[in-house]
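quick one, 206 residues, struct below
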Amino acid sequence: MKNARAFWNKSAERYAKSPIRNESAYQKKLAITQEYLRPDSSVLEFGCGTGSTAILHAPHVREMVAIDISDKMLEIAEQKARDAAIENISFRRGTLEEVELAEASFDAVLGLNILHLLEDLDATLARVQGLLKPGGVFVSSTVLIGDINLLLRLVIPPMQMLGLAPYVNRFGKQALVDKLIGAGFSIEREWQPGKATVFIVSRKSA
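---
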């Protein structure tokens, strides 16, 4: 975890300046997510990065908690929130397991572009399940390392050795869906803007 924190701290400024790769897909994900948000919703986003998505969703909910392991990412996120006059986001540093959060306290949990960076996906899904209220939704957008072409997969290890890439979990779409169902979620929406990514809305049983 120390290495991951160092990697993302070092990458924060560059990450903040990077353009969204697929703007139309991003806007569609925002729109779908907001179908599940209400003015009285309490929402958690883990792996929030520089806070851009949390800031866009915040006006649609009562409160948001946004967490990330990177101090530098959160510094940028907090400044963005101040610049946008958004006051209902609480930014906290740490992993989903480290940050103290009340069980069954969130109407929605967002895990966007983060699941493939986790070493223990099963533990994360169990934690999300516990944090959601009955009937709450888990929204995830994930890179499918197991479904990208072989050449790209072969490039990842040397990039990691050079400090140019973080840890990545190599599951494909079916493995992710199986893990979500195994963790007690039902799949409500599934959309793939491309073979290498999937956007899923899953629900905790009531």
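Strands lie at 42-46, 63-68, 89-93, 106-112, 132-143, 185-194, 197-204.
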